[in-house]
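[09:14] KT: can someone run the structure on this one? pasting the chain below
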Amino acid sequence: MLVLSCYSEISFIGSGIQVLREVGVARSVWVICDSVQISGQALCEGFGKSKLPLNFLTRIGSVAYLINVTPFRPKYKTDSAGSLSIGELIGLYCNRQATEQYDKIYALLGLSTDPRAPSLQPNYETPWHDILKNVARYNFPESSINTWNGIESAIIEGKGWILGNVRNVTNDKERYGHQIITIDFSETAKTVQYDEKWESVWVLRACAELIQDGHIICLMQGQSQPSIVRLCHDHFAVSEPAVTPKKSNCILSSEENDTADPQDILLRWKIPTSEVRTELEDSLCLIQMTPDFQESDAKTQSRLN
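[09:31] RB: done, structure tokens below
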């Protein structure tokens, strides 16, 4: 059982990354404020019935997900993995406070379904930009990754497919901390072969950056899960590095077996040191965000087109 105090330095709403790791393995959670105590599940249910500001969803929603699954964790197994990939976990919790920047990744490894890759083994002696490169390469295994000392972003260059855009986003009234997104798939999506066909309506956990209308579904070569990206001034930025789409039981017909050729795609992925991005970032040029990144004028023009 895990007890969270509303008077602690790290509160329920602003939970640090280390507290989330404790919540992620607990089999029950209680929140105590003075002489009042309430189960974490009851509190999350109350949040779902309250009209809280939208920015609370990014702070509470991801914690609510961990709390709501506590009863389903094995009773006598303390090292059970979670149900999310490391990419999904980083998308959920990258805006959480961490004493060490490294814990933005390392504290989540025990909650991940991914096997412990050698490149992700905790090593606090490794420079942060190399850790960022390793986790980006793990999520985008067939892409070229560049990082630099003192820069919070990784530049990801590779081939992939733009599969569609988010047409509508609503909050799930049945499950607090979830968003329902409706997707308009592109013609490219209809020709790319999947293990199963994706539905056009997905229910996703509310991440550190909420999904919005106009966000784009992107699948890079080598990825096992698609990403959600957004269009910035002159480049794409990663909003969610990995999401689990809703799949149907439909089998692809023989007419849908042609595969669209992948296109050159460049992405910027930021794991912030403290707070999440500001709207100002999306109006900046790529060279302003990552001044050490170099590309030819011809390649820049091709990318902009």
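[09:33] KT: thanks! The CA atoms of residues 90 and 149 lie 20 Å apart.
[09:34] RB: yep, looked fine to me
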